Amino acid sequence: MPVLLIAIILGIVEGVTEFLPVSSTGHLILATELLGFDAEKWAAFNVIIQLGAILAIVVLYWRTFWAVLEGILRNNPMSWRFVRNVLIGFLPSAIIGVILISKIELLLGNAEVVAWALIAGGIAILLIEKLVKPGDIVGVAEMPLKTVLGIGFIQCLAMIPGVSRSGATILGGLTLGVERRTAAEFSFFLAIPTMMGATTLELVKHHDTLLSGASGVGFGAVAVGFVVSFIVAIVVVRAFVHYISKHGFWPFAWYRIIAGTAALIWLASR
């Protein structure tokens, strides 16, 4: 299969799944297995194109970021609290990610881990939807520091491929008293420093390979995957926020359980 076609397929997968509670990393790993790609060769690509989806958040929420910037220039306390909450929420994954990076990389090629994590995450969503009452914390700047830190530590579960970074942070927010839309939007904002940090690490580690195209996956393919994931993520995020505000997360739970079970059956039959 041509490299650019693979880049387009993976860009679509990334754009669709990055901000849904279904695990973009897990889906990219399963896609490489299902279509017979060399997972190691595409590992750096899979991380870097996530910046395309992150750029979609910057574009969709530019008014929010602009208002925060203006507020900081005027020394507005709420704007400073917004920035503080995003940075504090990012801190646990930054520290733990650096400490455990070698162990995390060992899991990134394990499709069976992804399948089991999809199932477990689906069950967790169903339980939280049933047992947790709607929260009353509205607005990222309104979130108390202990809630932000709690969500930050819960986000670290997403270092296991298949758990879902957005799923962990959203559901973590719900269990800590944050209302649905705010939990989802905080997850989006938290993704910016988190994924920029992960992408920077991958670029530093693999820049020689990407520049030379030695692995067969050069910057051209990365650029295509980036643009595709950006466009697809814009469409998906708009629909997702509208949907979960009215209907909740249970369809994503059943999707995870079905997809994880199908993946286990397929992996066992190979």
TrEMBL record:
<keyword id="KW-0046">Antibiotic resistance</keyword>
<keyword id="KW-1133">Transmembrane helix</keyword>
<keyword id="KW-1003">Cell membrane</keyword>
<dbReference type="Pfam" id="PF02673">
    <property type="entry name" value="BacA"/>
</dbReference>
<keyword id="KW-0812">Transmembrane</keyword>
<keyword id="KW-0961">Cell wall biogenesis/degradation</keyword>
<feature type="transmembrane region" description="Helical">
    <location>
        <begin position="216"/>
        <end position="241"/>
    </location>
</feature>
<feature type="transmembrane region" description="Helical">
    <location>
        <begin position="253"/>
        <end position="269"/>
    </location>
</feature>
<feature type="transmembrane region" description="Helical">
    <location>
        <begin position="42"/>
        <end position="62"/>
    </location>
</feature>
<dbReference type="GO" id="GO:0050380">
    <property type="term" value="F:undecaprenyl-diphosphatase activity"/>
</dbReference>
<keyword id="KW-0378">Hydrolase</keyword>
<keyword id="KW-0472">Membrane</keyword>
<protein>
    <recommendedName>
        <fullName>Undecaprenyl-diphosphatase</fullName>
        <ecNumber>3.6.1.27</ecNumber>
    </recommendedName>
</protein>
<comment type="similarity">
    <text>Belongs to the UppP family.</text>
</comment>
<feature type="transmembrane region" description="Helical">
    <location>
        <begin position="113"/>
        <end position="132"/>
    </location>
</feature>
<keyword id="KW-0133">Cell shape</keyword>
<dbReference type="InterPro" id="IPR003824">
    <property type="entry name" value="UppP"/>
</dbReference>
<keyword id="KW-0573">Peptidoglycan synthesis</keyword>
<feature type="transmembrane region" description="Helical">
    <location>
        <begin position="82"/>
        <end position="101"/>
    </location>
</feature>
<comment type="function">
    <text>Catalyzes the dephosphorylation of undecaprenyl diphosphate (UPP). Confers resistance to bacitracin.</text>
</comment>
